[in-house]
Write a structure and sequence with these properties.
The complex is a heterodimer of chains A (about 325) and B (about 300). With about 325 residues, chain A is mainly α. Chain A is about 75% helix and about 0% strand. Chain B is about 70% helix and about 5% strand.
């Protein structure tokens, strides 16, 4: 229908304008030290996580409840490499300091998470469907957390790993890297979803049997989406480590890293490209506002917001106002 | 790590305490099983409801002097009512939607809401219910265990027994079972899905109330202790076989045993990982649960 093409172009235009404004924001005097700056940094992290969850659940139709584990794996990988304690002699000398915002480390963080996703995803996705897969990933997340608590010196046990904090003096690099990753991930997923692979993924989501009958290797498609989702989550975890300088099992394996992005995606619009980003902006704003206005009650307000959003906006913002029915 | 086989009385002690404690997961799992069976909803707020019930029991005890076990007579009917209202107010619309994330997220929102309301009302510190018999023990098969743990076990048995009787012997129970097996077919046979869902919810929350009594009398608790209960109940559910009510109780007891053994033979730090490992293994290799016979193909 003609009517449906319009809102899509409008959304794209708005997205480009917003990104341009965000890129130019640091040039504004005082912006870097303002509260909005750190607010936006967190929105970026959540938007990246949400986009990752949307890939496997929204486009792929496999509800993962274990994305916090991948976030934590990426965060730990970064902290362990960055702190340098465990890199053995020659390799460490050849590559002396794993630098601040080192892209190699960030990619490694994503790869470790993706590898874990492939290892756990192959058996889970071949055997389990629907709710059982969701339950399985939830169990996986808890197992990974316990493993890191019991990891001894390598993972720092219950305390975790501290990274060298000497390089930190401004939030600007975090902001820019976060923004770049958010936009980059969105563009990559847009590209992916328009490729043969993306079509196969949608086909598997909508009717696995039919997809399989048409020659699609459904297991491979599903595992790849799960691994891609984990890769994105791992990168987000890496970004968070560069912000916090400390990873611990209770902070990076916190269930919130799975639940909040999930919620943001659903509020924004599952299976849409801009939905996760929009959801991250709106929901994080609601939470943060509640934290400032009613500090004692803010988690109560958060819970209430989720319930109200789901009762009255079950289709998500993008599909309620964006006009597109299905991705 | 040396692996000595402990003397039989210690083994017996471990088994008994593990089984008695595990019954609590079991009773939570029975509630989850009903809700999951009819609505296909992973009701993550179940643990939070259990802790809420525990606080309620505590308030009844310290405020009105009502004995915790006697308060079952209040908590269970209140739970039935709350469960019914909860379904009608929160889940009725979402249950009809195709996207099941919505129900899941409402449950998550509810969990946040309850946890934090409890923190606002009662504070975040650990609370406990201490009665004159809290410290007393009893002897079963020559092994000592605490009185409250045994009572918790009895509550779990009675609760599960009543639910099984209800499902087997009443027409409404039959409808719930039919809906669990195939909601679409059940609807075609004239069963109203909303009614069945509401009943499952009412019983599920009433069981959370019963579990709350057991928790309040046995363990210290805090507003955030519920989530781990939800997870353990899920594990028990998977062990017992989703949709198998008596199996859920058995799954809980088995989980309690596994935890007790792991704690003794390996270390307390690994109990959760091993419990979830067993959970994953069961999901993968015997997704119908350890105790269920495929009753569809009878």
């Amino acid at each position: 229908m003609l009517k449906q093409t319009w809102p899509k172009q409008i959304w794209t235009g708005v997205a480009v304008l917003v990104v341009a404004a965000l890129v130019l924001l640091p040039l504004l005097p005082g912006a870097i030290d303002s509260y909005a700056f750190s607010f936006l940094f967190f929105v970026f992290i959540y938007a990246i996580m949400a986009q990752g969850w949307n890939l496997v659940a929204g486009f792929g139709g496999q509800i993962s409840l274990g994305n916090h584990a991948f976030f934590g794996l990426g965060a730990y990988t970064t902290a362990i490499l960055w702190s340098g304690n465990y890199l053995w002699g020659s390799l460490y000398e050849a590559y002396p300091r794993i630098y601040y915002f080192d892209p190699v480390t960030m990619v490694l963080g994503g790869l470790v998470a993706a590898l874990a996703a492939i290892i756990i995803g192959m058996p889970l996705l071949s055997k389990l469907r629907g709710d059982y897969f969701a339950l399985g990933t939830l169990g996986f997340g808890e197992i990974v957390k316990v493993m890191f608590i019991n990891g001894g010196d390598f993972t720092g046990g219950a305390f975790g790993v501290v990274a060298p904090a000497s390089t930190f003096d401004t939030l600007l690099p975090h902001y820019l890297v976060g923004l770049g990753l958010m936009v980059g991930v969105a563009l990559a997923i847009r590209l992916l979803m328009r490729s043969r692979y993306g079509l196969a993924l949608i086909a598997v989501r909508d009717d696995e049997m039919a997809a399989s009958a048409n020659g699609i290797d459904t297991l491979r498609v599903k595992v790849a989406a799960f691994a891609g989702s984990a890769f994105i989550a791992g990168i987000a975890g890496s970004l968070y480590t560069y912000y916090l300088f400390h990873v611990g099992p209770d902070s990076v394996f916190d269930l919130d890293w799975m639940l909040l992005p999930l919620m943001m995606t659903v509020v924004g619009g599952t299976g849409t490209l801009l939905g996760p980003i929009l959801g991250a902006f709106v929901m994080y704003a609601v939470f943060d506002l509640a934290r400032i206005v009613v500090p004692d009650y803010h988690p109560v307000i958060s819970g209430l917001t989720i319930i109200l959003a789901m009762l009255f906006l079950p289709k998500g913002l993008m599909r309620s106002f964006g006009g597109r029915v299905r991705a | 790590m040396t692996f000595n086989i402990p003397p039989p009385d210690i083994l017996l002690q471990l088994s008994l305490n593990g089984a008695l404690g595990g019954a609590m997961y079991g009773v939570a799992a029975v509630g989850l099983s009903l809700i999951f069976g009819t609505m296909r909803l992973i009701f993550l707020a179940q643990g939070a409801m259990i802790i809420l019930a525990a606080y309620f029991v505590r308030a009844l005890f310290y405020g009105l002097g009502i004995d915790p076990f006697l308060s079952l007579l209040i908590v269970v009917p209140v739970g039935l009512g709350v469960g019914w209202l909860m379904y009608q107010g929160l889940f009725r619309r979402a249950a009809a939607a195709e996207d099941r994330n919505i129900s899941l997220l409402i449950a998550v929102g509810l969990m946040f809401l309850i946890q934090n309301l409890m923190t606002v009302i009662w504070g975040g510190n650990t609370a406990a219910v201490v009665t004159s018999y809290t410290a007393s023990g009893i002897e079963i098969l020559g092994v000592r265990t605490s009185f409250t743990r045994s009572m918790g076990f009895l509550i779990a048995l009675a609760g599960t027994g009543l639910v099984v009787l209800f499902l087997r012997k009443t027409l409404v129970g039959k409808a719930v079972r039919a809906a669990s097996e195939d909601m679409e077919a059940a609807t075609l046979m004239g069963i109203s899905p909303h009614r069945v869902n509401a009943i499952a919810f009412a019983i599920g929350i009433a069981l959370a109330g019963a579990a709350g009594v057991a928790v309040a009398t046995t363990f210290p608790f805090n507003p955030f202790a519920g989530f781990i209960f939800s997870l353990k109940a899920l594990v028990a559910l998977a062990l017992g076989g989703i949709g198998n009510v008596a199996g859920a109780l058995a799954g809980g007891i088995l989980l309690g045993l596994i935890e007790a053994y792991v704690q003794y033979f390996i270390s307390g730090g690994w109990t959760n990982a091993i419990a979830y490992g067993v959970f994953l293994a069961v999901l993968m290799f015997k997704p119908e649960g350890l105790f269920s016979r495929p009753y569809k193909k009878a």
